[in-house]
Amino acid sequence: MKPNNQLFSQDPAQQSAGTLEQLTLLADLSQDFVKSMDINDILRRAVTRIKSYMDAEAASVFLLDKEQQNLVCRASAGPVDVTSMALKINVGIIGRTFTTGESQMIKDARKDADFVCHVDTLTGFQTRSVLCAPLISQGKTIGVIQVLNKLNEDLFHTRDLDILRLLATPIALAVQNARYTLNFVEQKRIKKELTLARKLQRSLLPGRLKPPFPVVGTNISANEVSGDFYDYFELNDGTVGFIIGDVSGKGLDASMLMVRASSLLRWIGKDKLPPGQWLAKANKELCEKASRGLFVCAAVGYYNPNTDIATWSNAGLPPVIYKCPKCSIKTWNADAPPLGIKSSDLSFEQQSMKLDMGGLYFLTDGLTDARNEHNQRRELEGIIEDIKNIESESPEVRIGKLITSARRHKLNDDATVLLIEKRDHLQEETLLNEYFKASPCQLKQIRHKIMQVSEQVGFNEKCCQQIILSLDEAITNIIRHAYKDTQDGDIELEIKTQNKTLVFYLRDFAPEVYDSSIRPRDLSNPLPGQMGINFIDSVMDSWEFATPKDGYGNLLIMKKEIE
Q: What's the pTM value of the predicted model, to 2 decimals?
């Protein structure tokens, strides 16, 4: 029996013509897909072409919404525009196609039990026959394409369904590609906004001050933006005010409150109120303008260099730690809850301490909550042990090492350290502070400057050459491995004398590495290009990595005792 549909003709010429038409349609659709990444535009072009090719009265595409509860029409072609119409995923012939993942051919829609007749009632359109094919990507059904009512014939045939199934594949692929592209663009936009927010936060941190300024701090964020902050400032009488804080929560809400709290505390601190009153006034302001349940842990205080006395008040931060070379560790717990929780009749006690060549450490709980490979917290005892091991270092190096130690663990929260210490006992002089590009072309000039400094402090020619080669190896490693020969990164070299020691601070701004991952090679099996650390190890009296003050990049510290 001869089929009614001419598309099923056994005539080879007609079969070849039909195949050519299908290939032409696929090619046209592909051209449309690459012209735009707008999903709605892509689908409008597709349904218009498919309606025309299949000689149908109407065509439409439904996609699963974000809540995965409804199928929403994203494009339609025909006498009635049903774009934006939403159907439950388990309702109607479209819903059956979606849930089963199987194509449907309904020759008489009104006899189908799942036919939703109220759509025709609402639109005035009369549905006679239906073709539906699922849009499947990576094994998941993401939508349905539907074609309604054959124009020149009353019924669709199997070949029509096969053609629709064939066309569904590139449509599903185009939808997913467009979504991936949009997600990528959105992620880049969010990343750009977070980068700007992070730069804004960093700009609020105090600038670098040369010794013997008695306050030094550092901060690193666990995420793109930080909820931690610190600040310090000098008053007219020489007294130094200091602030450290930790906003609850994460993300942009916390970062915005961080900006507000930091500015508020600095503004109040300029009036030189006693630390307890300082926090009380800030607490009242924060409670009057509640920030969605967020609160602020903070410590504020003053240090008077003339009397060597620090006075502070702590609201919710970890215990303050004091360490002096001549005495044992001393700690003070916070005696008040965080700011922004309770406004009425809340008092903040304050403590005082004469530093006497010791250091007063303020920190946020990102340090104590850092976890090791067994998910164990470092706790306060871990911080105290680190402080004991580094007390002979300069203040900048000490706080850098505390942060580096925390970063070897898993950081669950932002980490900030503030150190208050009189620095008259440390005889320190900066001999060189040089910024330069990470390019081999810069090495000759840098070698010359290192030679001048080394000769200036009294090293002989042989030792000077060894120092130059050590720095040359270290800088070359930064260029090759940290910046991967891109030559667009920055390097900072600072050389200081600290009492009888020449100290080299070599800093880059590349992704972080840790001293636990870089060690001298086994000399029994040397490999080309891997002996730089061994040479540095043999020339310098000590070397190690630490976290820079601003939390970015790597800081290599090398020391050579002056003969």
A: 0.58
Residue 336: strand pairing partners: 315
Contact 130, 109 (CB under 8 A): yes
User: Distance between CA atoms of 255 and 261, rounded to whole angstroms?
Assistant: 10
Q: What is the DSSP string of 261-301?
A: HHHHHHHHHTTT--HHHHHHHHHHHHHHT--TT--EEEEEE
Cis-peptide into 548, omega within 30 deg: no
Helix (H) or strand (E) holding 428: strand 428-437
Torsion angle of alpha carbons 448, 453, 454, 456, nearest 10°?
Answer: 120
SS3 68: coil
CA–CA distance from 21 to each of 34, 59, 334 (Å)?
20, 19, 79
State pLDDT tens for residues 184-223: 776 776 666 666 666 666 666 676 666 678 898 888 877 6
What token pair was written down for 200?
């804004």
Task: Locate 160 and state its tokens.
Answer: 């029509």
Show the DSSP H helices in 313-378 as ranges.
Answer: 365-368
Q: Which two tokens stand for residue 320?
A: 């303050």
Dump pLDDT digits (tens) for 101-114.
999 999 888 889 88
Token reading at 318: 């970890």
Structure-block tokens of residue 47: 């349904």
Buried b (16+ CB within 10 A) or exposed e, 543-553: bbbbbbbebbb
Radius of gyration of the chain (CA): 35
Q: Which domains does the chain have, with CATH numbers?
A: 6-183 (3.30.450.40), 205-421 (3.60.40.10), 428-561 (3.30.565.10)
* Angle, alpha carbons 29-32-34 (nearest 5°): 115
